[in-house]
Amino acid sequence: MEKDTHFILGVYDDEDVLLHAVEKVRGSGVKIHEVYSPYPVHGLEHVLGYKRSRLPIAAFLFGLLGTSLALTMQFYMMRFDWPMIIGGKDYAAFPDFIPVSFEMTVLLAAFGMVGVFMVSSNLKPWAQPRIFDLRSTDDKHIMAIDIANNSAMDVEKIKEILASSGATEVNKKSFE
Amino acid sequence: MAHHGEHHYNLEQRFDFTAATKKSIMTVLVIGAILLGIGIVLAMTGGHHEEAGEAGGHAFHWYERLYANLWINNVFFTGIAIVGVFFFAIQFAAQAGWSTPLLRVMLSFGNWLPIAGLLMIATFFLANHDLFHWTHAYLFDQNDPQYDKIIDGKGAFFYWPMEKGTFPVFYIARMVLFFGFWVLFFNKFKKISDQEDQLGGTSHWFKMRSWSAYFLVFFAVSSSISAWDWVMSIDTHWFSTLFGWYVFASWFVSGLSAITLLTIFLKGRGYLEMVNENHVHDLGKFVFGFSIFWTYLWFSQFLLIYYANIPEESVYFIERLSSDVYGGFIFVNLGLNFFLPFLVLMTRDSKRHGVFLKLVCTILLVGHWVDFFLMIQPGTLGHNGGIGFMEVGMFLVYGSAVALVVLGGLAKKNLIAKNHPMLEESYHHHI
After folding, report:
1. Helix, strand, coil: what percent of chain B each, to 5?
2. How far apart are CA B105 and CA B115, in angstroms?
3. What parts of the sequence cross the membrane (chain B) (predicted)?
4. A23 in contact with chain B, both atoms CB, cutoff 8 A
5. pLDDT at position B314
6. How far is A131 from chain B (nearest CA, A)?
7. Of B35, B87, B113, which is closest to residue B402 (Cα–Cα)?
8. Is the pLDDT of residue A117 over 70?
9. Helix (H) and strand (E) counts for chain A?
């Protein structure tokens, strides 16, 4: 079976039930594709066993880039390109450069972080979002299980596990 | 969260201030006293600074350095003590739940306040002319050749309603008023917290929130004015409009570091079981964030003065940066109080593990002491200052005395405010 096309969906009413269900489903050896919820559920990424995001590292590197660019730019302009004496200071007066460097650090860290986040979350403007169940934007939590990822297990068995973990409905969903 | 079970924490725990702990603090105190003694002897015998005739016939005496040291530590440790109370009040004003098991740790620093107040007043009368130039009567006498028009213009801020150059009624009144009210609020907080332990219910929390709000309003004004009075008035001609905030920021980082260190110390001794890496992480964030806040203020003050380059303003930094005694410490100050916490505490892990925090917070306490050293010594001692035996000794003596008083106060009551309505919330704190 092809990956990323056929899914079993567990629909949950309650976040506490969901949290325990995730533990139970993962405990019985089923690999969860993703859980969709209408609002952030505290502790969900923990029970799903997600690794910590590496976004802060990207932010740090982009910030560093901002600092370096700002300092290089100002140093080049003020010392080589068009030397100017301002307020009787040296051409390359370091303290003068700090505010601009600070702003550039913040700007690039923020932009870089947003950009990396959008790329890694596939939030391109032209991306077609896949909707597993519209009710996950309203009042239901949806647990999606990729059948191809769980080929060792029988589909009926997975459905049974979902139902016994507290899912109010168990559906199938296929994408083209 | 994954664990929803019942919690069986011992809420009646008390800090046992053992003889062994007392002994190790006393050892530090004695070492400090010995270093201080060596420093005094060296200063008394070392005659190379005695340059009579300089600055209007004013010869340098060794005890001036002792006074300056007393003053640095008075201001520094007063800050740590009042920030403990301030941070406690903030928790109630912000209706914070995460910090509930740490409330008594914060509040315990206030135990130093009464002693700090007495020391401050005593040092003022002892040192007088040797610390504060504005206490000289001739500055206000128009017939005197040393009459100073600028200081005369500021004189009322010290002497009102008395005649300028006599007894600084207004100045002393503010000092007494600030310490008086700070101690009053501290005792009020202690009392309400104590009643809550005995009676329970939510009424004490509401009462505490109101008193916290009153305190915060009072502290907003008094912290700024005390910075002008106790620190900025040393350089009497000079002024900076953000000085109050700058001193407050330095105090706040020192206080937060002290609170974090005490928390980690208590946890290491097996107390505060419900405090986990999430609570420590939050304290780490405060230390990290307010270190940057301090840098922001330090740099804002510096940049404007440096850029405008008006002589009466820039003299403050020329006195420091161009000095062979203090020049290097400016960079030590920035290195210890900005670059180090900024780089070390940036990652999540370093804020969640005691080792990094212990290291950074200890260095920050030294770093902000250096900050106050740089505010106070250049204006009082000029090139006769520096960091030597006397400075290290006095810092250790004060530090261990504060530790004795604070831990002694902490040991008197339960460590946890067991009937605090948000205690349960703090158990589930997770970030």
Report:
1. 75, 0, 25
2. 19
3. 24-46, 66-90, 102-127, 167-186, 213-231, 243-266, 286-308, 328-346, 355-376, 388-411
4. yes
5. 94
6. 27
7. B113
8. yes
9. 5, 4
A88 touches chain B (CB under 8 A): yes
**Structural domain harbouring B24:** 19-47+56-132+208-427
Partner residue facing B309 (CB), from A52, A60, A88: A88
**Closest-CA distance of chain B to residue A57, Å:** 9
Contacts of A59 in chain B (CB under 8 A): none
Mean pLDDT of chain A: 93
Selected residue of B98, B277, B306 to mutate for chain A interface (largest A Cβ count, 10 A):
B306
User: Are the C-beta atoms of B147 and B141 separated by less than 8 Å?
Assistant: yes
Q: Is A174 helix (H, G, I), strand (E, B) or coil?
A: strand
Q: Which two tokens stand for residue B245?
A: 């905030």
Whether a cis peptide bond, with omega within 30° of 0, leads into B378 is: no
Q: Does A40 touch chain B (CB under 8 A)?
A: no
Q: How many domains does chain B have?
A: 1
Contacts of B321 (CB under 8 A, 6+ apart): B327, B330
ipTM above 0.85, yes or no: no
C-alpha A68: how far from its chain's center?
27
Q: Which residue of B has its CA nearest to A49?
A: B2
In sequence order, what E strands does B260-396 have?
none
Question: What are the backbone dihedrals phi and psi of residue A144, each rounded to the nearest 5 degrees, phi first?
Answer: -105, 135
Q: Is the pLDDT at B158 greater than 50, yes or no?
A: yes
Compute the count of residue pairs across chains A and B with CB atoms less than 8 Å apart. Answer: 26
CB contact under 8 A, A42 and B1: yes
Tokens of B384: 């006769």
What is the average pLDDT value for chain B, to the nearest integer?
Answer: 94
Domain ranges of chain A: 6-51+138-174, 55-120
Surface of A (105-124) touching B: CB under 8 A: none
A90 vs A95: CA distance, rounded Å: 11
* Mean pLDDT confidence for A65-85: 95
Query: What is the distance in angstroms between the Cα of B302 and the nearest Cα belonging to chain A?
Result: 9
Statement: the pTM of the whole predicted model exceeds 0.95: no
Which residue on chain A is closest to B349 by alpha carbon? A52
Answer yes or no: is B139 within a domain: no
